[in-house]
């Protein structure tokens, strides 16, 4: 059976030129093949498309209706093909980007005006979610994830930055309750617990080093949102253990102060751009990943110009 799309293209040219032979010459087809295409369309539609005589060829009423529809379909197809081809040259289209709530608000959203100036034909939809989204089922083009490492999967991943953690409290809290110097001191302090974390949660905080100890903590405030815990810490309510990107501005202003204990903190996590696997990456996705990588490396902005944390009281001064 002749291809229907080709048949529609042939039909439009026959109607325009008024001749099977002329349409065939233009399309590089024999008159017999042109006749087969038209006959196949008429069989599928169950009606004649042309009035035929030895002297002239004209459209039937059904043919005129079909011609109008074919012209619209072929025009729409040409536009789609042009748009797809243009995306290979200039990024354009709707880009659905998902990211963790607090990170997106502090470190992604402020960058989007610049991205839009660079790539004005890309419409960005930013979704905020702390859970791990399913890119395929939920239709996301790209997601940012903060994890120790990405599990093996068919997804494509690019590491953008490291995510270091910090222990800190407000100067008002430390003046009132004292400064802890050892991880065991934390049991005598009020800590602010993040309920979505197993390693930095409401009852145990984990640390690094060879022994990788976990210490019990007492929390008078628990929350599933780091922004709330940060604001409580600024108000002098207790000690928080959070990624640097959550508190970098407060550390620079001095509203929070970094604490140095006798054990290193947990190992940094990785910020990764994750996209569905495909043989070719859409240009709109590629430019977004490259844009974020350029902003977050080699040193991410949340790590820049931070104050040096104070030495512990039991540590020798570097000048001694």
Task: Write up this protein.
By secondary structure, the protein is an alpha/beta fold. It contains 11 helices and 14 strands. It has helices spanning 4-17, 20-27, 31-45, 61-87, 101-108, 112-118, 135-138, 171-177, 226-234, 244-253, 283-296; strands spanning 50-52, 57-59, 93-99, 122-128, 142-147, 156-163, 165-169, 190-194, 204-206, 214-216, 218-223, 240-243, 257-258, 269-275. The radius of gyration is 32 Å and the shape is rod-shaped.
Any chance you could write out the topology, listing elements then pairs?
Layout: H1 4-17, H2 20-27, H3 31-45, E1 50-52, E2 57-59, H4 61-87, E3 93-99, H5 101-108, H6 112-118, E4 122-128, H7 135-138, E5 142-147, E6 156-163, E7 165-169, H8 171-177, E8 190-194, E9 204-206, E10 214-216, E11 218-223, H9 226-234, E12 240-243, H10 244-253, E13 257-258, E14 269-275, H11 283-296
Parallel strand pairs: 3-4, 3-5, 8-11
Antiparallel strand pairs: 1-2, 5-14, 6-14, 7-12, 7-13, 9-10
Keywords:
single chain, 320 residues, alpha/beta, 5-stranded mixed sheet, 3-stranded antiparallel sheet, 11 helices, 38% helix, rod-shaped
| Structure class | alpha/beta
Order of helices and strands: HHHEEHEHHEHEEEHEEEEHEHEEH
The major beta sheet can be summarized as:
5 strands, mixed
Distance between the termini: 91 Å
Give the overall shape, derived from the CA principal axes: rod-shaped
Strand content: 15-25%
Overall mean confidence score, pLDDT? 89
Tally of helical segments: 11
User: How many E-type strands?
Assistant: 14
Overall helicity: 25-40%
Query: Roughly how many Å is the radius of gyration?
Result: 32 Å
Give the neighbour order of strands across the main sheet.
4-3-5-14-6
- Low confidence ranges: 316-320
